[in-house]
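call fold(seq) -> tokens
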Amino acid sequence: MDDAVLIAQLEAALEDARAETRAAFENRALIYAAIFDELSWEIGDERAADIMKRAIRARGHEVGKKYRAAARRGDLDEVGRIFCEGSPCAGELFTPGVQEHSDGRIVLRMASCPLRDAWLEEDRSSDEIDKLCEIAAAIDEGTFEAAGLELTFLDRLGIEGSQNCLLELTGESAD
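ret:
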């Protein structure tokens, strides 16, 4: 087999893997929506959202360990690098970047989201999408809380008219 054929096969396999990964994220979004719908019916929207956020935030605590050393050093450049380089499919799913950076503060950006795209495809209302994004964002809250950083969402793609999720991180949290 010559190199060109091998390269073509590897590129095709990589494209398949990226499509499968995107489909898995979209499936996660639809599972979140289905669980929220069922819980809301049983116990109301507010309690449903609180329970889901607690569980998702707990998973974020596990993810946050990879940021802890950089956060302890106050190295927000490294936090930004880990965030961008660790994004699935070499960043193709969430299109991450650093929006702003100054002493003690960094604003991370995600310009796309397969979860939001799945909810849009499902014809969810803008209010439903915003609520589901708020729930899904608990992963980021838990992640950066576990790293010891303060997180403020400046914007979320789930808000009608928004172009990015903007996550402002500042120094170590009081936790």
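Residues 3-172 form a domain with the Muramoyl-pentapeptide Carboxypeptidase; domain 2 fold (CATH 3.30.1380.20).
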